[in-house]
């Protein structure tokens, strides 16, 4: 196993950080790694906003569901899907404006996620820890107003970065045969039973025996329609998702 694979396999989200700042050299290396990610047709349909203003950070922490680590982490980045710059480039040539149709929505969202994940790995390779913050989508309109996002830009998620001040257990993943299929999709329901027991053991260990749950039970609790406001919010940002 090489160092990169070992780093990837040792990922765990970090939610408690020391006060040590992320240096401008570290930030620059993280962003350069993010920019090296593959990107649909070289559109680079994303932007990332570093939040250095204490007040803005406080407001974002509240908007993300009062997640304290958003406020406390040394570096907080907001990853945005961004077709605005693409539109500006297109308009330089008098072409028709870019639409936020379903395909362009996918392109921009995937581009933002790929760049962010490169950033996360780069940060971890520097000994830093990260956690994604999808909680920003609890209040996407307020976040967009606060960050003055133009049309065709929307916040996909935030990311806390800093020196870890905790060593969480690795969260086990599904058995590989559950996610890997050969040649055709094959249902493997028994993998869920296997994973349920893995998660039961993990949760007991993580909580000192206080929580007895399984993966499927946790998923059942999430089976409602999450963040139903996203459809109308995306429309206000210029994405026509039906
Ligand atoms: C897009 C995305 C959004 C997430 N949002 C949050 C969040 O708002 N708050 C949080 O504490 N963790 C968040 N997470 C972290 C996940 O809970 C975590 O990655 C998952 O439980 C697996 O745990 P691990 O990263 O420690 O392996 C998010 C992860 C992703 C990929």
Automatic annotation (TrEMBL):
Pfam families: Nitroreductase. The keyword Flavoprotein applies. GO terms for molecular function: FMN reductase (NADPH) activity. InterPro entries: Flavin_OxRdtase_Frp, Nitroreductase, Nitroreductase-like. Keywords: Flavoprotein, FMN, NADP, Oxidoreductase. Its EC number is 1.5.1.38. Residues 9-162 form the Nitroreductase domain. CDD domains: NfsA-like. It comes from the Bacteria. Belongs to the flavin oxidoreductase frp family. This is Oxygen-insensitive NADPH nitroreductase. It comes from Paenibacillus sp. SYP-B3998. The gene is nfsA.
